[in-house]
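Fold Annotation — chain and its backbone
Encoding — discrete vocabulary of local shapes
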Amino acid sequence: MLRAGFQTVEVDNMTAEPNTGQDAAPSKAQLQLQLRIKQQEARLNDLKQKAKAQAAAARQRAAAMERAKDLRRKVLIGSYVLAQLGHDLERAAKLDLGPVSFDQWMTRPQDRAVFDLAEADGKQPSS
């Protein structure tokens, strides 16, 4: 609302013309401006989605690289231990580096079968 002299005049937000109470059709310039605003909002939403996707892809790549490094560490440690034990699987199964021996630590049947160890419940592996 604007005050013109002593008279209060309602102003349409888009045209800055007095509002007569009748809805005037938007001008061509207003329609073009509204269209451009909608296009820019759509572009902004697309860019936000693209940024989210890129961030997710970067996190996935970082996680994959960390898993690969972890796997490589395990392979290298295992190779070192086997080389030190002369690739003797029986000696490797009896390896004891701490409070729990390797034989006690390894509980999964498929892991124990790799070393031809009895299953944790005492059964012999099925080969």
In short: The chain is about 55% helix and 5% strand. The radius of gyration is 37 Å. Residues 28-84 form the longest helix (57 residues). The chain has a mean pLDDT of 81.
